[in-house]
Structure formats: C-alpha cells, structure tokens
Design a protein that fits this description.
This protein is of the alpha+beta class and about 60 residues long. It has two helices and three strands, in the order H-E-E-H-E. The protein has one domain. The chain has a three-stranded antiparallel β-sheet with strand order 1-2-3, with no helix packed on it. The longest helix has 9 residues.
C-alpha cells in the first residue's frame, strides 16, 4: 500500500461534529490521528482540521 493510500485510510476515520451553543456554533474533528494531521500539514493544509467557531445572528 502506498503512502497516499495509508493517509487516506487514516483520514477516513475522521468525523466532523457541529455543536450549537446559543448564538455560537462550533465544529470539531474527532478521531484524527496525530501522524495524519502532520502529513496533511506538510503540503500547507495546517488549518484544515482546526476548531471552527461561528457566531449566529439573531
């Protein structure tokens, strides 16, 4: 199995979760292996799996 196949296998485990907390919405990524995160950061995608916070207007 090639390097890219291994990375894709590791990334297939990642789950995206969005939680609404009042006026705020947060996005987290679960099951992200540390070595997979490092591999994704190499080509410049450092913030790909970072926590995302959105404010909702009311």
């Amino acid at each position: 199995m090639g390097c890219m196949d291994e990375l894709l296998r590791k990334l297939s485990r990642v789950e995206r979760v969005e939680i609404s907390l009042g006026r705020e919405s947060r996005v987290w990524y679960l099951n992200l292996m540390p070595d997979a995160k490092k591999e994704v950061a190499k080509p410049g995608y450092v913030a790909l799996f970072s926590e995302n916070v959105k404010s909702k207007r009311m």
